[in-house]
Amino acid sequence: MIYRPYRAYDAGIFIPEMRGFPAPSTLYLLLGSNRGDRIALLQQAREQLQQQAGHIIRQSPLYESDPWGFASPDRFLNQALAMETTLEPLPLLAVIQRIETALGRRRTGSGYASRTMDIDILLYGDRIIDSPFLTVPHSRMHERAFVLRPLNDIAPEVIHPRLNQTIAALTAACSDTGKVDLIKI
Question: Is 1 a domain residue?
Fold first, then answer.
């Protein structure tokens, strides 16, 4: 388990100098699942992220969408999260990959495929990261309605640091015609 620093922001306040810990960064994630008990898997992912990666500050409603980039009869449930974390991006990625594995994800290395859990880092503050392991902002988020619709629910005013447009503007301009349905639970 990852050490969690003092979290005064749980009570609605955060003073960066408090106890010598750095101020948290705000990041945006997209959760997706099209195998198994999708609702339970998303709940477990949220719980594990909260325990290991930081503090969830906003979450979108659930959306159901057709697979993107491959054919499958199993539709995805997706949800966007806003989190505060003191983890740097690469350690955060390691935590995310451990959570995906714990929830049954098996990486085949053969491109897009059905999965029990997929957690993508969409944005990490206003950082731009290009490494062999991680690209932030997510390189294709602006092309995907199943990403933008839930993200727009929780962060319409956030600016994409590469494209210099708000999430609301990117959502409005997105040409992806894939079916993305709001789920009422």
Answer: no
